[in-house]
Amino acid sequence: MIRRTFLIGGAAVVGGGIFAVKWADGAAQADAAARTDGKDGHNFATWLRIGEDDRVTLYSPHTDLGQGSNTALGQMLAEELDADWAKVEILAAPAESAFANVALGRGFLAEMTGAPGIVNSLPTSLLSMVARSMNLQITGGSSALRFTGQRSVRVIGASTRQALVKTAAARLGVPAAELTTANSKVVHAKSGRSLRYGELAAEAAGYSFDAGVALKSAKDFRFIGKSVPRIDIPAKVNGTAQYGMDVIKPGMRVATVIAAPVRGGKLESVDPAPAMAVAGVEKVIKLDGAVAVVAKGYWQALKGARALSPKFSDGGNGGISSEAIFTEQAQLRAANKPDATLGDGDVAAGLATRDARIIKADYRLPFLHHAMMEPFALTAHFKDGKLDIWGGMQDPLASKMQAAKAAGLAADKVTFHPMLIGGSFGRRLPMYTEIVEQVAQVAVQLPHPVKLIWAREEEVTQGAYRPQSSASVKAALGKGGKVAALQYDFAQPEDGLKEVPFFYDMPAAERRHFKQVSNQTVGAWRSVNATQHGFYTESFMDELAAAAGVDPVEFRRRHLKPGSRHRAVLEEAARRGGWGTPLPAGVGRGFAMVESFNTIVAHVTEAMLKDDGTPKVLKVTAVVDCGTVVNPRNGEAQIMGGIVMGLSTAIGESITLDKGMVQQSNFSDYPVLKLADVPAVDVHFIASGHDMGGLGEPGLPPAAPALANALFALTGKRVRQLPIGDQAKPA
Question: What is the 3-state secondary structure (H, E, C) of 515-541?
Fold first, then answer.
């Protein structure tokens, strides 16, 4: 992404200079206005529309995955705009280039380069062009509030309020300084006169956007920090909310697919006759790596697909197994040629410290599935040379472009209609899935709309998993229970080093990445690489504490700088979690703390063992520093959801390979945590005033190491490989 960004920027300057960039940005803004403007409403800075009836509409570039961020974005807009909350609505932004998310691009680029000053100094018009060229409309990376909300929505609200005040000042013939705003009105207290936003909107929309406008301070907040009821909940409760699976079009057919059982395999041949013999089946379509069956209904399509005996190649991947992957990863570490290294200090010298004890441990983590509630379902209709697609994807704009390429159509001939998503966790990013291409390729061959549904079994075996990963960690433990040097070597496809800071204060510490790639599609998974790094680091810190004979929390405290955010989170979590207080017999307590997406989360976990030796978590106390919490109740829900998902993956979830094929197929052999096993969860936020961090993902990473550490405290047995299963069961 970074390389492409600068290539695009350089090409723009060479090809037409800054004038061309600004012209393109202006054209995009005009296109956005044309799509949202109208005789009864007026567009402001692409994303905002104010109706003459005072209706305030935010066109959100983030998809509703159930995370509640669109409500919080509305709060951030209403805060700076001084809008009447009862008249605020949030709609999905059109999946068009004019609505590419420049704030998201700026935020991610600043993090990835480690040079926020340089990135923030780049012209918005240039970054906007880059966002459009990359079709950037992603929901993920805990980015909606900390990037789009902070860097775009709040600024748009404040700038628009400023324009409304200027317009009102001119109409009322008074100084702007004498005017105030509240509940979508500009008020002149001295004369008792006021003007509604709706009657000012047409003229105010003509003012230039002010990106440098001052934002409110926390002491003046009316909406930010309040638990405003989520706007999406009523429709989800009463059943009127529409998901991709709910789409019905006149004359619609339903299709499903059977893909190569070994990833990388291609369709060699298939006899369509067995499927065509099933009542209701109308067509069998050959795709590159799959076969699609089209029928009048889903069950007919599925029955037809299962009647087929397609022959697939294995792409040369038939010998891959989970154990073979771990073996290859160990061999890469043994070769000692890392692909990336991040850290400080002379680790080799530290590990050679005289009288230091060398502590070592090896860890293994499996592939993990996203296990989203709603299986894939996209509906497409090709008519009069144009393709319409309905459904939920985490990047509607990129999905539109992917569909256009697959169908052989120009982008302006394809319209993607974003819808609600019933769970995702990274699974519905178009670069990691085939369904967008498949539905486009099927639709252009049919005279009627078609809904393509993946069976649950297909979705499990053809996932875009969190990568299988392993690590070898070692440290030199010096006198006084302090670490002289730490090094861990880990293997997986991508490193993710900059995503997960190593915050412990040590003279020397480094993480070395060894790139290992299998035949499986791996992609973004909730908290991305923070689960791997968090498990390795926090499990090993506990092992070091035990080797030093020091309490695990005290050991961590010794390696955190006084006055730091991390130390504050650690101490608050220990206090609220009752660290050091007596526990009932048969219960252990563990601790873990991970920073990801600019948010620090610590867990104090209490757990026991069931009769079958598997763990049951009784309570998790979570302390979170995300800077500012926009909607505390929803923030709490996000942390709770992350904890439950993290515990589920720690205890029982695992994708395994044999002969290149995934062995799991449904929830019967890919078990997720049951409601009866969900612990009591207590969440507390620290208002640190730090830059805003994310909340959708950071609650998950500490879950597994905190549980593993609790089991060690209970049984004395270390868990170094997930899922835990019955590993902690006494011999």
Answer: ECCCCCCECCCCCCCHHHHHHHHHHHH
Considering only CA atoms, give the Rg of the chain: 27
**Average pLDDT of the residues of the chain:** 94
Q: Per the confidence metrics, is the pTM higher than 0.90?
A: yes
Lowest mean pLDDT among 10-19, 65-74, 399-408: 10-19
Cα 139 from chain centre: 6
Q: In this structure, which amino acid lies at residue 424?
A: S
Contacts of 292 (CB under 8 A, 6+ apart): 255, 256, 257, 284, 285, 305, 438, 442, 452
**What pLDDT is stored for residue 217 in this prediction?**
95
Q: Give the integer Cα–Cα distance in Å for 378 and 549.
A: 56
pLDDT of residue 5: 43
CB count, 10 Å around CB of 325?
26
Handedness of CA 381, 383, 385, 388 (dihedral sign): negative
Strand-pair category, 281-286 with 193-196: unpaired
CA 75 centroid distance within chain: 21
Residue carrying structure tokens 């380069």: 113
Q: Catalogue the E-assigned strands of 158-250.
A: 179-182, 185-188, 193-196
> What is the spatial distance between Cα 36 and Cα 28, in angstroms, rounded to a whole number?
13
Q: Which amino acid is at 176?
A: A
The total of other beta-carbon atoms located within 10 Å of residue 30's CB is 14
Tell how strand 680-685 and strand 253-259 pair up. unpaired
State the Cα–Cα distance between residues 419 and 113, nearest whole angstrom. Answer: 33
CA angle 582, 361, 329 (to 5 degrees): 135
* CA–CA separation, 102 and 49 (whole Å): 18
Rounded mean pLDDT of 342-368? 95
